[in-house]
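As promised in the previous annual report, we have extended the structural survey to additional targets. Below is the entry for Beta protein.
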Amino acid sequence: MTVYVPILKGRRPQFQALRHVTDQDDTRPVVEVEPGERDADVKVSVTRLAGEVGRNIPDGVALAFDTAPLARRFGRSAPREALSVLATLLEDRGHAFRPVIRPDDDPGGLGDVRRLVADHQMGVCLRVDGAYACGLGDVRPLLEQLDAVGVAPERADVVVDRGYLPPGSDAVTGVAGTVELLLGVPWQSVVVAAGSFPAPGDLRALPPRRVCTIGRREARLWREARRRWPVGVGDYGVDHPGPPPEGRPFGPNLRYTTGDTWRLYQWPTDASGGYSTFYDLCRTLRESADWPRDGPAFSWGDRRIELAALGRAGPGGGAQWKAYSVSHHLASIRRHLDDEEAFTAPTDQDI
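The corresponding structure token record, generated without further manual editing, is:
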């Protein structure tokens, strides 16, 4: 089976969706540890995340945690501090995990990672961003990083992360040389990842009560990469690759994955500013050609959408809508990867 690496924000909706993933062996999530708007320090951010793991993630699910985003708020030492705190908190809950490292991490600062890897015995995820990948002419720097943390290549998933794919980008050309270099080493897996979901500001510019089609440019990258090489694939779920947005929430919406596209269902709030319009949104989706043949059996998210369409569950809010969207997305990607026909051709796109 093709390895699939969803790169997800470490928030409640994403963990709720991961709780219901059925293919645990070949779906290997990378969770980005992001600070909350009001978090005063690293420990607050990590403690909240550990609580979500304890509530939602079954034993034996192999998560990889990337603590690098914490450096934006708390400084350069924050990622290492976060790994130490996270290891302690999750050990108390019986959860082992894989740390994410990068080729430009200071090898002298990887001692904590080495100890964590030795304790957990789950290997590492080596995340190589697009800029670094384009300049990579030799795999030795990557192997030296693995040596610094005491991991053999066979215990490392290498994720070549192209980040955000703008319209018209030739993503395969940007990673071709790197992938060909990597395939000369017996890694656990080599994964090509990217994302193309629009930034929050672009979504806010769209009119409400409209169904928009958004092209999933990473699907084309995957198709071409898999045609050329024996690689896995990765994406950013139903989110933009950048930091999570702050500010006012969106009205009722679902980001619904269908083949090479997302269908964005975006409804206005009701007359009182509430979310009762989510019921009509779900009915519209359920009656459309986007609704899967399996209906509510397709994913946990689809079961929740059907309950709302039938008026048997509350409308929820932004966290619930994101959880339903991520759940459907994970199931949809896994289904397509396992399908001999792979992905369908893209349809006309609004944005």
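The first helix runs from residue 12 to 18. The chain has 13 helices and eleven strands. These points will be discussed at the next consortium meeting with the crystallography subgroup.
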